[in-house]
């Protein structure tokens, strides 16, 4: 099974969905380690309870145990043998060192249909509020490869969900999250089974 490194900043519900799919045999992988910028977040605590190693990145001045970018890459590649990196609600910019080490092997999930509603500051509730305010009739999760800019990597997979006239941001968020928990494991399964291909212009597909 492929070793997966999952990055989280919050509760880690997508990480849990991926882990459950691994346990059911739907994904030929295992969560080998978790990386977080928030040492006490729900996702990190969930991992610790299951004996999954938790790494802290980036390092903070007043806290011990945080990793530099080079140390993070070394830990993922050498210590944990991570073959793929999955950003599952991680709210920090990924360092160039990691982008280079995991080119076309690192994906992020975004709660809107990129390239709309992406970029710096567009995460979580901010995204869903912007979708509702725009009058868009459709939204949904996007999974894309990660490069050195927020939300600008090549799009790999999307799922469309409706936005209804009486929706608020919370209703949209719940509908999108339900689809995230379906889409992300499917994409990870494809990655573990080497079913990702690229068009001649570099656009990936499953």
TrEMBL record:
Signal peptide: none annotated. The keyword Transferase applies. GO terms for cellular component: chloroplast. Keywords: Purine biosynthesis, Transferase. One of its GO terms (biological process) is 'de novo' IMP biosynthetic process. Gene3D superfamilies: Formyl transferase, N-terminal domain (3.40.50.170). InterPro entries: Formyl_transf_N, Formyl_transf_N_sf, GART. Its EC number is 2.1.2.2. Pathway: Purine metabolism; IMP biosynthesis via de novo pathway; N(2)-formyl-N(1)-(5-phospho-D-ribosyl)glycinamide from N(1)-(5-phospho-D-ribosyl)glycinamide (10-formyl THF route): step 1/1. One of its GO terms (molecular function) is phosphoribosylglycinamide formyltransferase activity. CDD domains: FMT_core_GART. Residues 3-188 form the Formyl transferase N-terminal domain. This is phosphoribosylglycinamide formyltransferase 1. The lineage of its organism: Eukaryota, Viridiplantae, Chlorophyta, Mamiellophyceae, Mamiellales.
